[in-house]
Amino acid sequence: MDNPLNRLAPQLFGDYPNKFLTLFNKIFIAPNTDKDIVKENLWKAYEFGNRYHEGQKRLSGEPYFNHCLEVAETLASWNMDYKTIMAGLLHDVVEDTNITIKDLEIEFDKDLAGLVDGLTKISGIEFSTRKEKQAGNFMKMLLSVAKDIRVIIIKFADRLHNMKTIEFLPKLKQRRIAIETRDVYSPLAHRLGMSSVKSQLDDLVFKTLHEDEYKTIFAKLKSSNRQRKKLINSHIEPIKSGLNKYNISPKIYGRSKSLYSIYGKMNNRNKNFEDIYDIYAIRIIVDKIEECYSALGVVHSLCTPVQERFKDFIATPKSNGYQSIHTTIIGADGKMVEIQIRTNEMNDNAEIGIASHWVYKEGRKIKNDIGSDIKWLRELIEMLKDESTNPKEFMDILKIDLFDGEIYVFTPTGDLIQLPIGSTPVDFAFQVHTQVGLHCLGAKVNHRLVSLNEELKSGDVIEIITGKKQTPSISWQKFAVTSKARNAINKFLKDTSLNESIALGRQLLLKTLRRLKIYNLKNEYLNSFKIFGYNNQDSFLSAVGKGFVTFREIHNKINVNQKEVKRSSAYSKIGNVINNVFRPKDGIIIDDIDNIMIRYGKCCNPIPGDNVIGFVTRGRGMTIHISSCKNLPLVTQENDRLVPVDWNLPRDAIFNSRLKIIGQDYKGLLKNLSECIGGQNININSVDIKVNGAVATAYFIIQIKNKRQLDRLIKKILFIKNVDSVERLGR
After folding, report:
1. What homologous superfamily does CATH list for 5-209?
2. What pLDDT digit, counting tens, does each position of 449-481 carry?
3. In a 3-state reduction of DSSP, which class is residue 104?
4. Of the residues 2, 95, 382, 638, which is catalytic?
């Protein structure tokens, strides 16, 4: 048994270990807080953890408690409260020793024991590279975080040190942990505003999964370091002198992009390392917000700014709370340099995100709940508590929510709402309130009526029109962007899909019978559910509505069962009619609905690759529209006539597509356009060009195979001299 005097020795003789003193000196202690009490409590946790981890070694050979100490020091560098740092020292004591949560509660308190308990539960989760399983476990982790967000902050510090020492693990385990870090912890760090943590994790993952590429970029960065620092310093000195004239004393320094970010840029833009000029950025840190704008004025007066690369995240912060001014200038050597301007507080928030909220102010700590600045996390947790949310959908939601681009729109009363780029009035409605979204009938954008799939832009003022009887349509799934909207729509459709599919199945069956002039046989067809193994008519009709059972299958089954009976001329005629009416046109087959005549909407002219949806028309089969087509009955009572469909086409299928091209008129414009289209092996059916002053508007009808080919052509056309825009049209 340990001598109890050993625990008291530092208090009696003042000989604290150097490692402990180093940690203590890093801790932020608020005014009016007794340092001796903090020191006493911290030592208690230090000694407790060291004692119970004694004799344990990591794979590197170092004492295990060194890892706990590293985690605590990381938390101290993030200005976390000392209770959280104590939990960092003890985060593995329950998992790796015979100590229980109850023991910690008795020895310390419920708060600290709760933190360690949350960490122990997370450590017990077995992650898999299979998305469904990984997502399901991630749900559990986030739900545990809901009690105290400090749990995940400690986990970040733990994961950071584990990734730094990952080379001592077997290769297979290295890969598993790196993928888990890439797919779970790095995105979550981003959403909590912890950019420094995200960058470090990304680089460590990059080093583990792509070691050769990491070494190459690291070597190139190191070799060009001196030259780039010289370039940065040439900009820093003039900026500093300019700010000093206004009695502003900034901190200015250069900061390089993460290696993973450089690698991503090289891959995404197909560039060499030498072609990337914004590897280094200049960061200007000032004391007050007004000094940020003064600094911006000085920077723009000294250098030429790049107009399209200016962003003011101070006036309109990102959804994770990030604030800064970003501008890009062109230096004397003609190279672009990014400038980031922010206050000290903004810088802390940008680097360590939510962790910065545990800094003590005037001796009082900010309440450690999930605040308004991380509303996203709170909403996600509520989403997870809904038992209907399945793991696969959750991962999709997570991916969608991790957006970099945002827009800022307003309610009619002037309230600011942040949304991802590509959001529609439906997303806005659900962001205001779930009930508003569920009963969204229409929308006004800047006092103008628009369709629900209209893409919103920053600065728009949106008014939502609601109706008591209005409910979400299946087509909303195609253009809703935010996780809140998509989850609410999915939940509603799940709750109502049975009745809708029954009604749709009945409608499809009866309409087809009526069209074939055999409506008198409806009872025979409706009651054929036993042949297909269904217990009742409703479940059978639901299967028809969902496309699991087709009319052709029903007809063939009924005929097979009547083999012993002499076939009437009526049945023989039915077979002929079906073969003639439902023969796929031009080799085109739409999955699960080959029993219905297919037409394509002239309003949107869908082509393979478009997200499409079927609309059952009265007496004319089914019309295929692009899911975002404005002519779809989005806000009518006919939503049950919408049917999910997909493409299943032969390779040689050809579709007509219409393009509107606007540009400056010049001699040879039509020739250049025609050559560009012909050069992509695309046939031109017709062309119409009109000139009004110096502006030429050309309309082309071309033969296209799929959306990918069309998108490639549009990009090529935009490179033609003096072409301003290319738009795909319906009719």
Report:
1. Hypothetical protein af1432 (1.10.3210.10)
2. 888 989 998 778 899 998 888 888 878 888 898
3. helix
4. 95
Q: Beta strand pairing status for 251-256 and 280-286?
A: antiparallel
Half-sphere CA count of 389, side-chain side, radius 13 A = 23
Q: How far apart are the C-alpha atoms of 261 and 599, rounded to whole Å? A: 47
CA distance 650 to 109: 69
Phi-psi domain of 394 (left: phi exceeds 0; alpha: psi -120 through 50; beta: other)? alpha
Check residue 596 and give its pLDDT: 55
What is this structure's pTM?
Answer: 0.52
Q: Which of 24-38, 423-437, 582-596 has the lowest mean pLDDT?
A: 582-596
Phi-psi group of 681: left, alpha or beta (phi > 0 → left; psi -120 to 50 → alpha; rest → beta): left
660: phi then psi, degrees, rounded to nearest 5: -110, 120
d(CA 234, CA 252): 12
Alpha-carbon distances, residue 201 vs 197, 222, 261 (angstroms): 6, 20, 12
Q: Assess whether 62 carries a catalytic annotation.
A: no
What single-letter DSSP state applies at residue 57? Answer: B
Range 218-358 has CATH code 3.60.20.10: no
| DSSP secondary structure letter of residue 540 | H
Q: Which long-range contacts (CB under 8 A, 24 or more apart) does 523-530 make?
A: 524/558, 525/554, 525/555, 525/558, 528/554, 528/557, 528/558
In the block, tokens 């780029």 appear at 421
* Both structure tokens of 142: 């986030």
CA–CA separation, 582 vs 594, rounded Å? 7
Tell me where in the chain the CATH 1.10.3210.10 domain(s) lie. 5-209
Q: How many CA atoms lie within 13 A of 340 on its CB side?
A: 21
CATH number corresponding to 373-476: 3.10.20.30
549-566 pLDDT tens trace: 777 778 777 766 554 334
Tell me the two tokens of residue 215: 């070494």
| Helix, strand, coil percentages, rounded to 5, for the chain | 50, 15, 30
Residue 400: pLDDT over 70: no
Q: Environment class of residue 350 by beta-carbon count within 10 Å: exposed (0-12), middle (13-18) or buried (19+)? A: buried
pLDDT digits (tens, 9 = 90+) for 39-74: 888 899 999 988 888 888 888 888 999 999 999 999
**Alpha-carbon span 49 to 240, nearest angstrom:** 48
**Known catalytic residue: 95?**
yes
* CATH 3.30.70.260 boundaries in the chain: 655-729
**CA 673, 674, 675, 677 torsion: positive or negative?**
positive
**The residue to which tokens 């329950």 are assigned:** 94
